[in-house]
């Protein structure tokens, strides 16, 4: 088996507390489908047959009762429950399921809505024998105004600095502004090997990672890492250029005993142990390919740890973790799939005005003289007469009275 | 049509006999009449030939004239045997060919258009009728001798005829049908579609784009194809594993992984089932990048080893046997062969030599490293060419060892050749008629070296020897991504929209063939042989196996 998919659906939704009030984040309706459905649909379309879903007990209960999940998702979902209270980060969750992981892992977050061609990310992972391949996208300005927010709040503290090489594929540097105190410092070893680096700040991390199996084993050893995004990824990106990563014979390291103890755990992942390492080495030696030009080193600078990123220029990629993103997603999600805006089982009276941007869910009843513009109406809602619904998202099972 | 041709010949025969009786020379009017009849005959024959070799939809004049040119000589070949008439008739026949070619192209185009219209009509009617044996019998001696000739006229193998839509359909079906009934699953290898406008001379070859990898059409956790093979296919198509030795080694490595993960299904024999398992993988790799001659030989070897496994052998034992065979093959044919070749080649390198190398050949680099270790004093001139610019990698490796190098582009080869004392070239394959198939540009270098009387030595392991025969680079070649030829300087790309210009085609060839006259010596692990001894080596190899 080549890749195992893991869906992280235990997140709290800390940045959209108003919405999380009633329904947990993975089951928030977006375009009348639960949020979780979108990444699952992406995996299913690409050809995955099994997904390990890490979630809370509450979500599991609701999932089993949700008709959409049962009918549309044909894959086998292996649900693993973790405690709700937990300060369990994503990496902790991976550690939790380490026994189930038998091959390389594709980690997806439940709040990702995208139409990316997944093979682009996985091809980087396969072709370069990378340790990490991730997806990022150019951030779009949100056009919708968020109720309750005056003006545009620039979340300056949340900026990510991502450094890539001129081809735009190799990940050289990753840091969050919150971690940088006074300035951005880049090690000389990185600059020596990659004299040209493009640093981008306007990128959104899609939280879709392909990780080698050795990384999961490494996580099991190293209990200090708790979040993939916050700690593991920057660690791996840094480790690409560390001295131990580039030393050829690591077993002969008798000099730095103490360092060796600390790096013992990293040795595991860095010694990408394959029984035919010598053959691969031979093939690479005989091949007349190099990933860079201009200096005297071999392909990949002899480094065994490589991180790649695929940056999406065009196309949909949203992470629904803030209110603004939720609203935006509701507007655009229906365009992902060619489903009719109006569900066939909805009963709509004739004198109703409906804009093209709206979506009406199943079993709705919409009475006369109503006007619905740019809104999403959930399933089984009743809208009585003389109601104007503009720019809203109405959840399931709601009744809107007259006037 | 056949009958009219018969009557033409009849008349001609009478004319000839009359002319013979009147004197050796035919009168002017008779010559003209003969010419007209010959042309008519040719028209009919060309129609038949056109039906046989279906031309592509895009009809350029160059295409039609290029197609017509090889056809006319074949017609003159057919005509003599078809018409068992005395020799003098064929002098005007052969003079017909250039005469008709000299005619103004306008009328030729008109004629061709008419011919094609007639051909379409006849093809439609022919599809109604079933088979032509009746017609053939009726036409008698006109058709019978050409049918005898048919086995001699060699047709292109089907996998090359890309411009023939029927062949493409057959290929797609074949890829679909390559299934192994494992739990009823069918292995469907997707067909990679061609990209961009292909220059008409090479329309029978595939041209793929690097931006449309075959993995687009596969499911991501590839269950159908072993992940090692998918990885290898990706590396081939992106050029990460390039060079004939590297490709073979990587292929055998992937096969080892496949064999390791293989389990014999119940009621099947390992020797037969494993070979069937490998077939779709090989077609997948072929779609990613056409197989090289060295890879083909390696695959033949592996298949032979697998089918030679005795049936009573246990699975574990059989698998370890095959794995050991593969290890032996790599060790013997690649690593040890390189050592042997280096040992003999070093004798040819003397002190104060100036050696010219082209591109990045792993074997030639190995020889130069060994020679440097043995403290020979020489310097190297590395010749490079666009778009691959592989010479940069060769330059890097040589300079890293401490060898003093000069770097030029292929356009400067005649400028630099007076300094050169020897030329060392690597080969992708050695063909059975002594031709050397190598990176495009090699034959140019060999030609210029011959002009300057500089010895050309080709280094090639015997596992790259191939039974194919080729005298030109058109028949069988590889077309690389045409977008590689586009250059962006200071943000400006002039060829950005080359697809929209209807008269523009980009051609990115990968291989070319060098005739044996330009090659002085071939260094193999069996010794230093002249180029013409390649078929002997092949025969010896076949006897061994």
From TrEMBL, chain A:
GO BP terms, alphabetized: cytoplasmic translational initiation
Family annotation (InterPro entries): eIF2B_gamma, GMPPB_C, NTP_transferase_dom, Nucleotide-diphossugar_trans
Record has Metal-binding as a keyword: no
Ranges of Basic and acidic residues composition bias in the record: 249-264
CC annotations in GO: cytosol; eukaryotic translation initiation factor 2B complex
Domain (Nucleotidyl transferase) ranges: 5-139
Primary location class: cytoplasm
Any one Gene Ontology molecular-function term assigned to this protein's record: guanyl-nucleotide exchange factor activity
Residue ranges of every copy of the Mannose-1-phosphate guanyltransferase C-terminal domain listed in the record: 341-401
Keywords assigned by UniProt, alphabetized: Cytoplasm, Initiation factor, Protein biosynthesis
Gene3D superfamilies on file: Hexapeptide repeat proteins, Spore Coat Polysaccharide Biosynthesis Protein SpsA, Chain A
Subcellular location: Cytoplasm, Cytosol
Chain positions covered by the region annotation Disordered: 244-268
Function statement: Acts as a component of the translation initiation factor 2B (eIF2B) complex, which catalyzes the exchange of GDP for GTP on the eukaryotic initiation factor 2 (eIF2) complex gamma subunit. Its guanine nucleotide exchange factor activity is repressed when bound to eIF2 complex phosphorylated on the alpha subunit, thereby limiting the amount of methionyl-initiator methionine tRNA available to the ribosome and consequently global translation is repressed.
UniProt subunit comment: Component of the translation initiation factor 2B (eIF2B) complex which is a heterodecamer of two sets of five different subunits: alpha, beta, gamma, delta and epsilon. Subunits alpha, beta and delta comprise a regulatory subcomplex and subunits epsilon and gamma comprise a catalytic subcomplex. Within the complex, the hexameric regulatory complex resides at the center, with the two heterodimeric catalytic subcomplexes bound on opposite sides.
Similarity field: Belongs to the eIF-2B gamma/epsilon subunits family.
Protein name: Translation initiation factor eIF2B subunit gamma
Name of the gene this protein is made from: eif2b3
Automatic annotation (TrEMBL), chain B:
Biological process annotations from GO: animal organ development; central nervous system development
SUPFAM superfamilies xref list: NagB/RpiA/CoA transferase-like
Compositionally skewed regions (Low complexity) per UniProt: 90-101
Cell location: Cytoplasm, Cytosol
Keywords (A to Z) from UniProt: Cytoplasm, Initiation factor, Protein biosynthesis
Bias kind Basic and acidic residues: ranges: 7-32, 47-61, 103-132
GO cellular component assignments: cytosol; eukaryotic translation initiation factor 2B complex
Residue ranges, compositional bias (Basic residues): 33-46
Positions of the UniProt region annotated as Disordered: 1-148
GO molecular function: guanyl-nucleotide exchange factor activity; translation initiation factor activity
Summary of the function given for this chain in its UniProt record: Acts as a component of the translation initiation factor 2B (eIF2B) complex, which catalyzes the exchange of GDP for GTP on eukaryotic initiation factor 2 (eIF2) gamma subunit. Its guanine nucleotide exchange factor activity is repressed when bound to eIF2 complex phosphorylated on the alpha subunit, thereby limiting the amount of methionyl-initiator methionine tRNA available to the ribosome and consequently global translation is repressed.
Assembly mode: Component of the translation initiation factor 2B (eIF2B) complex which is a heterodecamer of two sets of five different subunits: alpha, beta, gamma, delta and epsilon. Subunits alpha, beta and delta comprise a regulatory subcomplex and subunits epsilon and gamma comprise a catalytic subcomplex. Within the complex, the hexameric regulatory complex resides at the center, with the two heterodimeric catalytic subcomplexes bound on opposite sides.
Family (UniProt): Belongs to the eIF-2B alpha/beta/delta subunits family.
Protein name, entry field: Translation initiation factor eIF2B subunit delta
Gene source species: Austrofundulus limnaeus (Annual killifish)
Name of the coding gene: eif2b4
């Amino acid at each position: 088996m080549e890749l195992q998919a893991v869906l992280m659906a235990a997140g709290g939704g800390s940045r959209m507390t108003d919405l999380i009030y009633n329904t947990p984040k993975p089951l928030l309706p977006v375009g009348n489908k639960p949020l979780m459905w979108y990444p699952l649909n992406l995996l299913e379309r690409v050809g995955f047959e099994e997904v390990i879903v890490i979630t809370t007990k509450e979500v599991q209960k609701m999932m089993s009762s949700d008709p959409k999940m049962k009918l549309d998702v044909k894959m086998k979902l292996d649900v693993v429950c973790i405690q709700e209270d937990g300060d369990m980060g994503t990496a902790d969750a991976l550690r939790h399921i380490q026994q189930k992981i038998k091959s390389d892992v594709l980690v997806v977050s439940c709040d990702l809505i995208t139409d990316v061609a997944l093979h682009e990310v996985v091809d980087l992972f396969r072709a370069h024998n990378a340790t990490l391949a991730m997806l990022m996208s150019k951030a779009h300005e949100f056009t919708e105004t968020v109720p309750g927010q005056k003006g545009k709040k620039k979340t300056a503290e949340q900026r990510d600095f991502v450094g890539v090489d001129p081809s735009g594929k190799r990940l050289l540097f990753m840091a969050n502004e919150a971690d940088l105190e006074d300035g951005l410092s880049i090690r000389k070893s990185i600059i020596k090997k990659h004299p040209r680096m493009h640093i981008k700040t306007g990128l959104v991390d899609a939280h879709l990672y392909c990780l080698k199996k050795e990384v999961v084993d490494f996580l099991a050893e190293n209990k200090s890492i708790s979040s993939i995004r916050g700690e593991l990824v920057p660690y791996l990106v840094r480790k690409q250029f560390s001295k131990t990563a580039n030393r050829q014979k690591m077993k002969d390291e008798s000099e730095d005993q103490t360092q060796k103890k600390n790096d013992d755990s990293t040795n595991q992942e860095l010694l990408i142990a394959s029984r035919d390492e010598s053959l691969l080495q031979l093939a690479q030696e005989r091949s007349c390919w190099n990933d860079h030009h201009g200096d005297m080193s071999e392909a990949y600078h002899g480094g065994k740890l490589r991180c790649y990123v695929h940056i999406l220029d065009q196309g949909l990629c949203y992470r629904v973790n803030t209110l603004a993103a939720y609203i935006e997603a509701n507007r655009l999600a229906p365009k992902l799939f060619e489903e009719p805006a109006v569900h066939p089982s909805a009963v709509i009276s004739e004198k109703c005005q409906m804009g093209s941007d709206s979506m009406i869910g199943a079993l709705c009843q919409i009475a006369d003289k109503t006007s619905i513009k740019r809104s999403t109406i959930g399933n089984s809602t009743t809208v009585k007469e003389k109601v104007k619904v503009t720019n809203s998202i109405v959840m399931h099972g709601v009744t809107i009275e007259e006037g | 049509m056949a009958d009219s041709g018969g009557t033409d010949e009849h008349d001609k025969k009478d004319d000839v006999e009359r002319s013979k009786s009147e004197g050796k020379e035919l009168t002017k009017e008779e010559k003209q009449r003969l010419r007209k009849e010959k042309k008519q005959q040719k028209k009919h024959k060309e129609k038949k030939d056109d039906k046989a070799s279906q031309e592509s939809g895009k009809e350029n004049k160059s295409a039609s004239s290029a197609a017509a040119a090889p056809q006319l000589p074949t017609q003159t070949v057919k005509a003599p045997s078809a018409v068992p008439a005395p020799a003098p008739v064929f002098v005007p026949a052969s003079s017909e060919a250039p005469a008709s070619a000299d005619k103004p192209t306008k009328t030729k185009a008109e004629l061709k258009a008419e011919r094609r219209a007639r051909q379409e009509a006849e093809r439609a009617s022919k599809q109604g009728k079933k088979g032509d044996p009746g017609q053939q019998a009726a036409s008698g001696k006109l058709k019978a001798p050409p049918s005898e000739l048919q086995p001699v006229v060699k047709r292109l193998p089907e996998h090359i005829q890309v411009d023939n839509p029927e062949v493409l359909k057959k290929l797609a079906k074949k890829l679909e049908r390559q299934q192994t009934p494992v739990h009823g699953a069918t292995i469907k290898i997707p067909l990679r579609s061609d990209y961009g406008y292909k220059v008409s001379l090479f329309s029978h070859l595939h041209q793929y784009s690097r931006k449309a990898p075959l993995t687009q059409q596969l499911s991501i956790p590839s269950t159908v194809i072993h992940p090692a093979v998918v990885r290898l296919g990706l590396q081939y198509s992106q050029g990460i594993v390039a060079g004939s030795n590297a490709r073979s080694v990587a292929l055998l490595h992937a096969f080892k992984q496949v064999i390791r993960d293989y389990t014999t299904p119940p009621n099947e024999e390992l020797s037969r089932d494993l070979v069937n398992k490998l077939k779709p993988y090989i077609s997948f790799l072929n779609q990613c990048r056409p197989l090289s001659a060295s890879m083909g030989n390696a695959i033949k070897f592996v298949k032979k080893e697998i089918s030679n496994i005795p049936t009573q052998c246990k699975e574990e034992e059989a698998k370890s046997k095959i794995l050991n065979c593969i290890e032996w093959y790599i060790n013997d044919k690649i690593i040890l062969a390189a050592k042997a070749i280096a040992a003999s080649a070093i004798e040819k390198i003397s002190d104060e030599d100036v050696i010219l190398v082209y591109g990045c050949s792993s074997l030639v680099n190995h020889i130069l490293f060994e020679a440097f270790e043995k403290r020979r004093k020489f310097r190297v001139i590395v010749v490079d060419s666009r778009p691959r610019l592989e010479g940069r990698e060769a330059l890097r490796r040589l300079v890293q060892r401490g060898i003093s190098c000069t770097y030029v582009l292929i356009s400067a080869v005649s400028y630099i050749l007076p300094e050169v004392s020897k030329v060392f070239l690597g080969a992708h394959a050695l063909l059975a008629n002594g031709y050397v198939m190598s990176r495009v540009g090699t034959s140019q270098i060999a030609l210029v070296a011959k002009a300057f009387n500089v010895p050309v030595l080709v280094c090639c392991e015997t596992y790259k020897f191939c039974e194919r025969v080729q005298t030109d680079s058109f028949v069988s070649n590889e077309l690389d991504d045409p977008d590689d030829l586009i250059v962006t300087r200071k943000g400006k790309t002039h060829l950005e929209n080359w697809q929209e210009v209807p008269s523009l085609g980009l051609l990115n060839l990968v291989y070319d063939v060098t005739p044996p006259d330009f090659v002085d010596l071939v260094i193999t692990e069996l010794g230093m042989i002249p180029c013409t001894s390649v078929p002997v080596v092949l025969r010896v190899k076949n006897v061994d196996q």
